[in-house]
Amino acid sequence: MLPPSRRDFVSLTLSESGSYTDSKQWHRQSCWRKWKQLSRLQRSLILFTLMLLLVCGIATSPTLIGHWRGEIRLEAVREAFRHAWKGYKNFAWGHDELKPISKSHGEWFGLGLTLIDALDTMWILGLKEEFAEAREWVARALSFDKNVDVNLFESTIRILGGLLSTYHLTGDSLFLEKAKDIGSRLMPAFNTASKIPYSDVNIGKGTAHPPQWTSDSTVAEVTSIQLEFRELSRLTGDPKYKLAVMEVMKQVHKLDGKQDGLVPMFINTNNGLFTHQGIYTLGARADSYYEYLLKQWIQGGKTENELLDDYLLAVEGVKKNLLKKSTPSGLTFVGELSHGYFSPKMDHLVCFLPGTLALGAHFGLPADHMELAKQLMETCYQMYAQMETGLSPEIAHFNMHEGSTQDVEVKIADRHNLLRPETVESLFYMYRFTKDKKYQQWGWEILQNFNKYTRVPTGGYTSINNVRDPANPNPRDKMESFFLGETLKYFYLLFSNDPNLISLDKYIFNTEAHPLPIWPQSE
Ligand code: DMJ
């Protein structure tokens, strides 16, 4: 028997009352009837099309895409951290640095530097298990009662800074106790004729000394320990820490030998005067002097005018003496001045500057600081993008002569990349303040290149010798503690769209990316 033929039309029957409600009900019934009259194939096709439209709609919604992209990137950073941590845990647990290629460790101070530097990163990334096991090590195994020479600056920014910020984020008094311990053990460094601290302290013996070959300290080192010691005074109620580091700032403020607010690189611990004068850079040995002028001013509630004045003067000094444009692309870069001669040399370290300038502009400093920040950010990105591996060299030289075809040149000795954070750090500030997604995109490219050229399959990431040779970047077999303390933390904060995740109105990052609170106005 043949099935009854389907009807191609639906008969219309008006209800007697003809009211609007009735007609709606009729319409609904009529649709339902139509639906039931369709074949199974027709129904499936319609359902499939509707589903497809729904999926396409969701997938092309900019808000949702943005959200998913953000989540994927955040997870990529967490994954990178776990991978780095796996190497550290398996081959270097409790030691200063992982050597991921030889699956061993390197020691600098013998104080678990990578572990301490990474504590607040784990907290911010939400890596609870990893954090718990690291905390356990701090509680049970970390002792500063050791006959060991440590560098005052490095142990302040990485260890004291790391412990203080972890205390603030977690409220766990273990970290405050450890911070007090290392802080007081570092104080002998300030027992000098000039009150300018020595570079090295024996934290077990309580003695301090300059490096073997000189009685000089580095200017950036003695002027970039203030955020941490000032905070230690606030937390302990003991002013001695703050007084010691502010004395250094007072002296440097008054010293002769600056050029338009720019400082030389060395200072003598006997007489407190600048030495090796005539060389001015925003790179190694001077960099964080400028960063900490601004950051101390912000930390202390924007009332310490000498700090602000010195910072503003220095930015003008940079503009007047160190800023130039490259050829062919006209990138703005910060070079160096050596006894009156300009050198188009820019350390990767200088790439902290766009972020610092942007931070100042956020706190009311001239708007042209932000304009300069944007230009320099582009330059720092190009230092990555123009390399064959997409990773920046340690030092770039910019071309300035007509006819050159490439902006960035790299000397053979400068081709290494140490997994440094400065560009990612600045990208984070620039994204927070402008919300321009290109900064996240640039960071994403850089993270992928770190994964491509520096990731070691058995765990960890390694510094490399040659950013110009993708076929053989030539691993150095060292993962610096700042890769976990700074680089990965700044990647995570860059990819996060939550401005309250370590709000820049509440926290100030020390030069090792450890967030410390901005003091309440009442203090
Ligand atoms: C870090 O220890 C700090 O960021 C310091 O200010 C400069 N050098 C490294 C990272 O490059």
TrEMBL record:
<dbReference type="GO" id="GO:0004571">
    <property type="term" value="F:mannosyl-oligosaccharide 1,2-alpha-mannosidase activity"/>
</dbReference>
<dbReference type="GO" id="GO:0005975">
    <property type="term" value="P:carbohydrate metabolic process"/>
</dbReference>
<comment type="similarity">
    <text>Belongs to the glycosyl hydrolase 47 family.</text>
</comment>
<comment type="function">
    <text>Involved in glycoprotein quality control targeting of misfolded glycoproteins for degradation. It primarily trims a single alpha-1,2-linked mannose residue from Man(9)GlcNAc(2) to produce Man(8)GlcNAc(2), but at high enzyme concentrations, as found in the ER quality control compartment (ERQC), it further trims the carbohydrates to Man(5-6)GlcNAc(2).</text>
</comment>
<keyword id="KW-0326">Glycosidase</keyword>
<feature type="active site">
    <location>
        <position position="287"/>
    </location>
</feature>
<dbReference type="GO" id="GO:0005789">
    <property type="term" value="C:endoplasmic reticulum membrane"/>
</dbReference>
<feature type="active site" description="Proton donor">
    <location>
        <position position="394"/>
    </location>
</feature>
<keyword id="KW-0472">Membrane</keyword>
<comment type="pathway">
    <text>Protein modification; protein glycosylation.</text>
</comment>
<dbReference type="InterPro" id="IPR036026">
    <property type="entry name" value="Seven-hairpin_glycosidases"/>
</dbReference>
<dbReference type="Pfam" id="PF01532">
    <property type="entry name" value="Glyco_hydro_47"/>
</dbReference>
<keyword id="KW-0106">Calcium</keyword>
<keyword id="KW-0479">Metal-binding</keyword>
<keyword id="KW-0735">Signal-anchor</keyword>
<dbReference type="InterPro" id="IPR050749">
    <property type="entry name" value="Glycosyl_Hydrolase_47"/>
</dbReference>
<feature type="active site">
    <location>
        <position position="422"/>
    </location>
</feature>
<dbReference type="GO" id="GO:0005509">
    <property type="term" value="F:calcium ion binding"/>
</dbReference>
<keyword id="KW-1015">Disulfide bond</keyword>
<feature type="disulfide bond">
    <location>
        <begin position="351"/>
        <end position="380"/>
    </location>
</feature>
<dbReference type="InterPro" id="IPR012341">
    <property type="entry name" value="6hp_glycosidase-like_sf"/>
</dbReference>
<dbReference type="InterPro" id="IPR001382">
    <property type="entry name" value="Glyco_hydro_47"/>
</dbReference>
<feature type="active site" description="Proton donor">
    <location>
        <position position="154"/>
    </location>
</feature>
<keyword id="KW-0812">Transmembrane</keyword>
<feature type="transmembrane region" description="Helical">
    <location>
        <begin position="45"/>
        <end position="68"/>
    </location>
</feature>
<protein>
    <recommendedName>
        <fullName>alpha-1,2-Mannosidase</fullName>
        <ecNumber>3.2.1.-</ecNumber>
    </recommendedName>
</protein>
<keyword id="KW-0378">Hydrolase</keyword>
<keyword id="KW-1133">Transmembrane helix</keyword>
<keyword id="KW-0256">Endoplasmic reticulum</keyword>
<feature type="binding site">
    <location>
        <position position="511"/>
    </location>
    <ligand>
        <name>Ca(2+)</name>
    </ligand>
</feature>
<dbReference type="GO" id="GO:0036503">
    <property type="term" value="P:ERAD pathway"/>
</dbReference>
